[in-house]
From TrEMBL:
<dbReference type="GO" id="GO:0005525">
    <property type="term" value="F:GTP binding"/>
</dbReference>
<dbReference type="Pfam" id="PF03029">
    <property type="entry name" value="ATP_bind_1"/>
</dbReference>
<dbReference type="GO" id="GO:0003924">
    <property type="term" value="F:GTPase activity"/>
</dbReference>
<keyword id="KW-0378">Hydrolase</keyword>
<keyword id="KW-0547">Nucleotide-binding</keyword>
<comment type="similarity">
    <text>Belongs to the GPN-loop GTPase family.</text>
</comment>
<dbReference type="InterPro" id="IPR027417">
    <property type="entry name" value="P-loop_NTPase"/>
</dbReference>
<keyword id="KW-0342">GTP-binding</keyword>
<dbReference type="InterPro" id="IPR030231">
    <property type="entry name" value="Gpn2"/>
</dbReference>
<dbReference type="InterPro" id="IPR004130">
    <property type="entry name" value="Gpn"/>
</dbReference>
<dbReference type="GO" id="GO:0005737">
    <property type="term" value="C:cytoplasm"/>
</dbReference>
<protein>
    <recommendedName>
        <fullName>GPN-loop GTPase 2</fullName>
    </recommendedName>
</protein>
<comment type="subunit">
    <text>Heterodimers with GPN1 or GPN3. Binds to RNA polymerase II (RNAPII).</text>
</comment>
<comment type="function">
    <text>Small GTPase required for proper localization of RNA polymerase II and III (RNAPII and RNAPIII). May act at an RNAP assembly step prior to nuclear import.</text>
</comment>
Amino acid sequence: MAGAAPTTAFGQAVIGPPGSGKTTYCLGMSEFLRALGRRVAVVNLDPANEGLPYECAVDVGELVGLGDVMDALQLGPNGGLLYCMEYLEANLDWLRAKLDPLRGHYFLFDCPGQVELCTHHGALRSIFSQMAQWDLRVRLGMGRPILQMEELREENRCHAPMSHSELTAVHLVDSHYCADPAKFISVLCTSLATMLHVELPHVNLLSKMDLIEHYGKLAFNLDYYTEVLDLSYLLDHLASDPFFRHYRQLNEKLVQLIEDYSLVSFIPLNIQDKESIQRVLKAVDKANGYCFGVQEQRSLEAVMSAAVGADFHFSSTLGLQEKYLAPSEQSVEQEAMQL
């Protein structure tokens, strides 16, 4: 349609360490979104990702392959992956040409799992920055909704050029790290470093909730970890370990840094649980403004609830704790004495 208004593209940039469940998340979320009636395009930005379980609309493997780079340049898997992302950064015209025909779709970007790309290497941040120069603006959600009313009609969307996007970065980490205080502090530091390096808001997920106590029992209730409450209690647990006792001052400084920023929080996720996926999608939609669009003809009540962020986190977290965590055999008094 000539003269049609430019369309707004929404989506998610799925990031996280290797094995955290990014590809499985893209599969489950794409199926869930299609059940809602959204047109989904999954974009694989991981050149090391082979045997994709989902229908891939764009695959970076068509541009550059990790195996070819390792053989040609005599690089290891880490160096080869960094080179691949730098190569993609230098050839973003290829990605833009692939995305432009997918106007009207909801995007899921399956990003590489190398931690360096999100903590201090500049390639991934530069890719999103250059996308913003195309007027494909990137947003990473952290529960602060973008109050944007979408006034375009669906028929105009199908023919308008894609000139604006609202993406939410979804950062996945394994939930079983909560069972180890030292690993949980490491996860907090990595999540915070990722948020600061990418320089955009952020949504953190505790993935594989069904395995949260697979490697050990949690020392506190689930909301302690999702809301990142008083971390001094973790220091007391670490002090009971002879190894970490010598590093108490270092751990205190790390905990103080995390609490001073007060940015990190988590949403529990079990990708096989539809209620869990819906809870994550609600947070993502609130972050990138999709919940204020006309695509799904939301009622005024639903829009107002999303606008004020109305959600009972305590009750939902309590339900998840009863569902996935084994009940404690100790009384409250016994637990207090143990602390």
